[in-house]
Amino acid sequence: MSSVYDSNLVLIQSALVAVLLALSIQVPLRLGVFSLAGVGSYGIGAYVSANLVLRYELGSIPTMALSALAAAAVSFLLGVVIYRLAGLYLAMATIAFDLTVAVVALNGGEWTGGPVGLFGVFTDLTMGLLFAVVALCLVAVHVTEIGRLARRVTTVREDPELAASVGINVRAYRLTAFVVSGLVGGLAGCLNTLTRSAVGLQDVSFHLVVLALTTVIVGGALSWRGAVIGSVLFTWLPTALAFVGDWQELVYGAIVVLAAIFLPTGLYGAWCSARRQFAVSFVGRRREAAVRARLHQGNVDKEVAAS
Amino acid sequence: MTNVLEASDVAVHYGGVRAVDGISFALEEGRISGIIGPNGSGKSTLVAALTRLTHLTRGELSFAGARYESVRPASIASMGVARTFQTVRLLPDLTVAANVQLGHDARARRDRPRGRGLPAPVSQALDRTGLAEMAHVLPSELSYGTQRRVEIARAIVMAPKLLLLDEPTAGMNQSERRDISALLRQLRDEGLTQLLIEHDVQMMLDTCDHLFAMAQGRLLTEGRPADVVADARVQEAYLGKGWKAHAGDQ
Q1: A294: which chain B residues are within 8 Å (Cβ-Cβ)?
Q2: Nearest CA to B146 among B88, B202, B107?
Q3: CATH annotation of B3-80+160-249
Q4: Of the candidates B74, B94, B178, which has its C-beta nearest A164's C-beta?
Q5: By the 8 A CB rule, do B220 and B213 touch?
Q6: Is the ipTM of this complex over 0.85?
Q7: What is the domain extent for residue A295?
Q8: Where does the record locate the signal sequence feature (chain A) (predicted)?
Q9: Burial of A190 (0-12, 13-18, 19+ CB in 10 A)
Q10: Which of A82, B12, B176, B207 has a Cα-to-Cα distance from A134 of 20 to 30 A?
């Protein structure tokens, strides 16, 4: 068991970072905010953490906190400027933000290392701390998926006018989506730098946008469980597809296309639908029949009374 | 009688279109007021303006004596105004109970009582609207009329001081309309002020204490429901100019 863990250590680290990156896209999506700015925040978190460690020799915990806060602050300012945009226009604006971060990284001089990047970012980060931070984020997101907060989040996404009429400040929720996305994306970038001890242009490249989006689409966009499933899948997929050699990219693309066509709610959504179907078909059939009978009888009684 | 809501010279213009064009009126406390008018007369735009979902071109709004034409739409619920929409606006993935709970969320931070089950106001709202049996059913499994009752339950669970109902009985059969009319009158007897928009004139006559008639964004007349319905200007707005002569020819 231990040898399996050791031999997959890098993949496990990658999967944990990928979970947070996926959450930085998924949290805004759950609020109806089609923002891909989480990837830009990831880049900010990655470079800020490298500088904090290399220049100020901070430990892993303050580095994580400051990197996440820096990314969240930038994301908040971005949100203030573009929160009124929606749909594809919002996606375009946030991709422009991601590309801007990449340009700054390329031309940032000694702060970013330019095309070479920054190396030797060593801290006291342990696997236990890495697991704990990711678990903490998942618990925080889980809280937004249950009870009152879940209903309000769903309403902001599905019907902003209805949300306003039941007292929900839609603007505040949308701005919060930008802040949380920045916080989680920045944390993901920071953890990636601390686990790899280096940061470079690959940490702000466009392929991260594609990776994060496909992770969420294939895993499931409406729950953190979808982000976890997608992250694990896409972290191990290249290893699993090693046997197809040069055809790997094609198979990868085919999986994404097939998932988008046949699993529009992602793997987790499909699992939930199957479970609900099972409950309706077997467990709840008797109760459902009883309710239907009462509904029908009620309508009949009213029609008789009316006539 | 005191006025719960007062509107003064309210106008909503979209470019050259004057959807609402300088309307002034007041809603008396504890009364059911109604607005009738042909399609496109500006009734729903007026409700959107009253709930701040539509920006006012000009005019003043006051609720319980306090001006509110500058407040955010989300603050309307905390002022004590609840509404239903012209079309059904339920969340398809939430059960009937969860949809109604959304209204309860506006006034209560506690998610559920200490024991199990729904909060008492939610259960009461479901009972009053005849939805108790359907609490755990998805909206898509209900008839259109029943879905509208879920909207009413979601609004009354907010314990509002003023309830705005935009065509609440659209899609209902006659017996369902009578049930809703009885429910609204019962709520009125408990002190809830209401503003009702409907096309069903008989329903308005049976339900409302006071009626406003609108046409082309303006207020034509107001008064006792029977008088307003009998007003020649109102009949002309619905049936067109010269309708009497045309009817005589027939």
Answers
A1: 133
A2: B88
A3: 3.40.50.300
A4: B74
A5: yes
A6: yes
A7: 270-307
A8: none
A9: buried
A10: A82
